[in-house]
Write a structure and sequence with these properties.
- Helices cover about 30% and strands about 35% of the residues.
- A five-stranded antiparallel sheet has the order 1-2-3-4-5.
- A hairpin with a 5-residue loop joins strand 2 and strand 3.
- The radius of gyration is 17 Å and the shape is globular.
Length: about 120
């Protein structure tokens, strides 16, 4: 899924983006807009983790937040700690998703592994 678009917020400010990878939908509104996590390259720059709301066609978006990979990994660690999920540095996002899916299936909390979190 790659969207290459130009988005104008005003008369002189064109924003170019390349939506390189769709990671997931966090929420959906009745009007079709979705809050998403994606990998986006803005204005020809380096691709970053991006969290914001998009219209159904991915032609318009709201203000959001972009994170470098290191910042995204730090966020995953912080959320894993907050929600008591196990975290390993081998694949932070994939591990968090797997832990969340396992929790939903088993409906029980996983203990937080502080030693593994401190090593990463």
């Amino acid at each position: 899924m790659a969207y290459n678009q130009n988005y104008s917020q005003g008369s002189n400010d064109k924003v170019r983006f390349d939506l390189m990878e769709h990671i997931g939908v966090l929420a959906k509104k009745d009007n079709g807009w979705t809050k998403e996590v994606n990998i986006v390259a803005w204005n020809g720059g380096k691709a970053k983790v991006d969290i914001r709301e998009w219209d159904p066609d991915h032609a318009r978006m709201t203000k959001g937040i972009t994170l470098f990979e290191e910042e995204a990994e730090t966020l995953v660690k912080a959320l894993a700690h907050r929600y008591g999920l196990r975290y390993t540095s081998s694949s932070p996002c994939q591990e968090a998703v797997q832990n969340t899916a396992a929790m939903e299936e088993q409906e029980e909390e996983l203990p937080f592994d502080e030693a593994a979190a401190e090593q990463s």
